[in-house]
Amino acid sequence: MHLQKPLRLSAALLISVTLVQVGTVSVSQAASVRVIDGDTLDIDGKTIRLHGIDAPEAGQTCRRPNGKTWPCGKQAIEALETLVSDDNVTCDDRGADGYGRTIGVCTIGSEDINAKLVSMGLAWAFRKYSMDYAEIEDTAHRDALGVWQAETITPWDFRAEKWAFAEQETPHGCPIKGNISEGGQIYHAPWSPWYTKTKISVEKGERWFCSEAEAVAAGWRAPRWGR
């Protein structure tokens, strides 16, 4: 089962970015930056997965103390767009994950963007992989900020639940939908807001994938989240 964060694109933002490879010479360049989701950036075609955090999925909602819900996934995306919209962004390079994405900490001046999202309650500390933001999360939790207003499912459990349900309903237990549209070859994971609306026509060349990595390797991309 592959439950890593999907590659998804949101509004394009044009800013100056510095990519810094840890232990190597840094490289500065003007780049096109897209916010993919609440914890992922696309910098001039290079995908940066923010180290040590996990934001709610784009279509995920969270609870308020009164029992009502709010679009926490959408707000995490909007918060990241705001954070990177006006200033120079610096991202280090901590290696690649299994999807070819660069893991990194991104900063604006001295401000750690990863930490900022956790402190706002718009991302969890991804303790499975790093404890770097655990104390910041504890403070946000104590202050009932963002996702900590009320009991809310974590993004990794949200993805796992969506995946488990979808794999029972799809051919050969491979629930990722490879759809062909005007935008090209696009895949939809079970947690995509458009997942249930997407139909697969094998006759048109559309297909099913067993993992996001398989879809990416075959040349398909995740949907663009746009405004």
Write the layout of secondary structure elements.
Blueprint lengths: L11 E10 L5 E11 L2 E4 L2 E5 L2 E2 L7 E2 L5 E2 L1 H12 L5 E5 L8 E3 L1 E3 L2 E2 H7 L4 E2 L8 H9 L12 H15 L6 E6 L2 E5 L18 E3 L2 H6 L10
Parallel strand pairs: 1-8, 4-9
Antiparallel strand pairs: 1-2, 2-3, 3-4, 5-12, 6-7, 8-10, 10-11, 13-14, 13-15
Keywords:
227 residues, alpha+beta, OB fold (Dihydrolipoamide Acetyltransferase, E2P), 2 domains, 15 strands, globular, Staphylococal_nuclease_OB-fold, signal, SNase_OB-fold_sf, Thermonuclease family protein
Total helices: the number is 5
Main structural class: alpha+beta
Helix content: 10-25%
Strand order of the largest sheet: 9-4-3-2-1-8-10-11
Series of H and E elements: EEEEEEEHEEEEHEHHEEEH
Terminus-to-terminus distance:
31 Å
> Radius of gyration in whole Å, from Cα?
18 Å
Q: What number of domains? A: 2
Topology, number of strands: 15
Shape: globular
Query: If you consult CATH, what is the topology of the largest domain?
Result: OB fold (Dihydrolipoamide Acetyltransferase, E2P)
Largest sheet: 8 strands, mixed
Low-confidence stretches: 6-15, 23-30
CATH secondary-structure class of the largest domain: Mainly Beta
Mean pLDDT: 84
What CATH architecture label of the largest domain applies? Beta Barrel
Query: Approximately what portion of the residues adopt beta-strand conformation?
Result: 25-35%
